[in-house]
Every structure is written in C-alpha cells, then in structure tokens.
Amino acid sequence: MQKELFIHHHTRHGFYTMQKNHFHDQYEIYYLIKGERTYFIKDLTYRIGEGDLVFVDKYELHKTGDTRLPNHERILINFADGFLRHFNQPLLYEPFRMKIRLLSVPLQDREWVSSLLFEMLKEFNDGLSGSETALQAQLARFLIWCARRLNRGSGADFEHESPAHKKIADIVADINGSFDEPLSLESVAKEHYISPYHLSRMFKRVTGFSFVEYVNSIRINEAQRLLRETDWKVTLIAQRVGYDNISHFGRVFKEIAKTNPLEYRKTSKREDH
C-alpha cells in the first residue's frame, strides 16, 4: 500500500517554495488547512487559501510557492492508478481532468472534509489489518463528493490574479503546444511583444519556474511518456521533443529524471508488469 498510496500532514513555519521541477506517476490531492499559497498546474497559477482543495493529474507539472504570508498547514494525498482498481467508476478521476483544478470547500463542509482526511491519515499511519480496504473506501467516497460539487459548478470560477498572470498563462499554453519546436526566451518574447528581460522576470514570478526550467521540464515529461509508451529509439524521441543534440538531451534528462533514458525505459517497463 505504501507504494500505491501516500498521505502526509505538515505544518511549515516561515516561507517555503518547492525548489524542484515536479511531476510524478501518481494523482495528487492537496488540501490547505491554514495559510495561503500559490499553486501552478499545467498552465494556470492558482492562489489558494484555507479550505481549498487542488487536484493534480499524474505526470502533470506542478509547483507550490509562497504568497506574502508565511506559515501554512496542509494535507497531501498521492495515489497510483492501481489503488482504486476495484472501483469501476470514472467519476473518481473527474477532479483531475477538469480545466479548473480548484475546489473551495464551503465553510459548512470544512469540518467534515478535515475529519475525513485526518481519519484517513490515522488509518494510513496505523497500518492495521484491513487498512488498505478502509482507505480505498474513504478515498473513493471523498473523490465522489468532490466530483459532484465540481460538476455542480461549486469549483472556483477562475480569475487571473492580474493581466500579467493572464499573459503568462497564454504563453505557457503556447509552449505546451509547441515544445517540440525551437524555443528561446528571445523568440517567445518577440512573438508576444514583450522584452526578454520582462518575460524572464514575469515568467519566474508567476509560475515559479525560470523559462528554461519550464521548457526543459515539459520536454522531458513528454520524453518520459514516449519512453514508456513506444519502442522508439532515444535519438528519435530526443528529436520529437525538441532536442537536436542527443548529448544535451541526455544531460537534461538525467538532471530532471535522475536517471538516463534507457534505464528509465527499463524501470517503467518492469513496473508495468
């Protein structure tokens, strides 16, 4: 169960921003109990507060960051595809597939949400007999509750925090759709009629990534998918995700994935069987 489900509660004092480029093969649920955070997912930056739930799909690039307020408390749940294998219910995965991944829990429901999540945390930590079945049932119940509210329009009506946030969201969406093409800070800045210096500062402030970090992360994310799902040669995959130089591709891949492409393919194939 430890491999298929992870639950963690943490209270952090002071300011904190995730330092690593972050995507993984599990679904993620983030519940902010206290404080205020930013949360970048795919191409949008959310400002989240107390009682907000965030849903991150597997293999989706994401990063949390500070606002101007220190201190926060959160519960994090990660689970693999196989954990809910006994439930043949597509509704369970809808919160991870919607355009807006934020659900602001109404005040009258926050006590119930917190109680359920802390009950799951205790079940996870105690590891008693039958805990996996209990956690599967609790997680399924919780996800159905979330999906129903999102489908009723109870999710946040997303508004960009500023025109700069809207501009960067548009730029990130363009990058997500053209990462296989030659991309540079200068070319993207020119295409969007802003200076490279201004784009660099604004991109980092809004997403938490530098421009180069983001482009490399998106490219390596796609390379990992192709390594898992195809038998293409590494040189072809490198070209398909925007790298003309195979040595450079290998260096960037290892920096982000902490392994080389061939070893990643072998490991992912073993885990599938």
> Which regions contain 5 or more consecutive residues with pLDDT less than 50?
none
The share of residues in helices is 40-55%
Q: Overall pLDDT, averaged?
A: 92
Secondary-structure content class:
alpha+beta
Radius of gyration: 20 Å
The backbone outline, from C-alpha atoms, is globular
N-C termini distance? 17 Å
What's the story with the biggest beta sheet? 5 strands, antiparallel
Percentage beta strand = 15-25%
- SSE order in H/E notation? EEEEEEEEHHHHHHHHH
Report the strand count: 8
Q: Biggest sheet, strands in spatial order?
A: 1-7-2-5-8
Summed up, the helix count is 9
Fold topology:
Elements: E1 5-12, E2 27-34, E3 37-41, E4 44-48, E5 52-56, E6 62-66, E7 72-79, E8 102-104, H1 107-126, H2 131-151, H3 163-178, H4 185-191, H5 196-207, H6 211-229, H7 234-240, H8 246-257, H9 261-272
Antiparallel strand pairs: 1-7, 2-5, 2-7, 3-4, 3-6, 5-8
Characterization of this structure:
This protein has 273 residues and is an alpha+beta fold. The strands form 2 sheets. It has a 5-stranded antiparallel sheet, with helices on one face. The radius of gyration is 20 Å and the shape is globular.
Task: Give a quick precis of the structure.
This protein is of the alpha+beta class and about 270 residues long.
